[in-house]
Design a protein that fits this description.
41% helix; 4-stranded antiparallel β-sheet; alpha/beta; Aspartate Aminotransferase, domain 2; Aspartate Aminotransferase, domain 1; 390 residues; 8-stranded mixed β-sheet
Length: 390
Amino acid sequence: MKSKKKTYLSKRYEWIIQSEIRNMTIECDLREGINLSQGVCDTEVPQIIKNGAKEAIDHGFNYYTRYDGLDELRCAIAHKQRKFFNMEVDPKNEIVVSAGSTGAFFCACFALLNPGDEVVLFEPYYGYHLNTLRLIEAIPKFVSTYPPDWTIDFGELKKSISPKTRAIIINSPSNPSGKVFSLDELKKISNLAAEKDLIIFSDEIYEHFVYDGRKHIPMATLPEMKERTVTISGLSKTFCITGWRIGYTICKKEWSEVIGYFNDLIYVCAPAPLQRGAVKGLLEISPEYYEKIAKDFQKKRDKLCGVLENIGFSPYIPQGAYYVLADISILPGKSGKEKVMYLLEKTGVACVPGEAFYHDDYGQNLARFCFAKEDTVLDEACERLKRLKM
């Protein structure tokens, strides 16, 4: 009898779930389809940002920066927070620039959570949040939000909290649901956090993608919440530079120092010339640019949601971000994966099965579509979807 071949893989490998977003991107590429699965914004990068990065490279700025990022970038981020959200931040002590917002979240979790800590995670969730919790051996406590507006059952939230609970993760505007947390919801969560002495991880990467006159409210701007909030954000989405990996955390000095240590260990620093480009964008791009983002992406949202509704799906209109979750139960297949593969085969349009955003089978009749595409690409995707015959 042959002995089992040794794999040498770590046990952590078993805890990590391969992203269905990546899987559907691969399936889409194999069929030369249109990828509405991955959250890659393919609209144009502002020229001033590209020029800033090019100038940095040409002038030899290609070496390590400080582990917490360039001074001028941290100052620019603080300026942005003050200008848009009336949020005062100390750029010297309260900001750590990292390798994207996912990298920032990763370092924050290593700095502030221990194995066995429980962390509240709202469903539908962002997969990287769940996988990061698993990797550090924290225990996710799932709390549902309910369509069409992805409302929170605060009774359910309170029941999820135990003496082992350490933190709550908020993602607003949300990937994948597009939920924008209201001031009332944020107040209730902040009161609960204060009562139970909890940390808030507030992922705000889609802060400028809000629709129908809504406003993004950073959790840290609520009374007494700056002391217990880690704001996680970045420039990938706002400036269409997802491959540059420029993210950051904002929190009190005591936490920032330790987050910085982990950032140094894991990433060393974010790419130096690209940090310079980001500074240019933050300081020199006009306010009209941000207003245009919201208007343009709301039009994209309305276009895609209109088509999804016309072909028999039931889209839940997102309040922010650039994704829409839709009920696709009319498609054949028992699982969400079977349904979205049917759609890909019939139309050449890729989306993500809803199970990718739930810990159980609840999402099997849902799919996530990304509308962060150039108008010509989104128009072609819509035309292909219209050909679906059920």
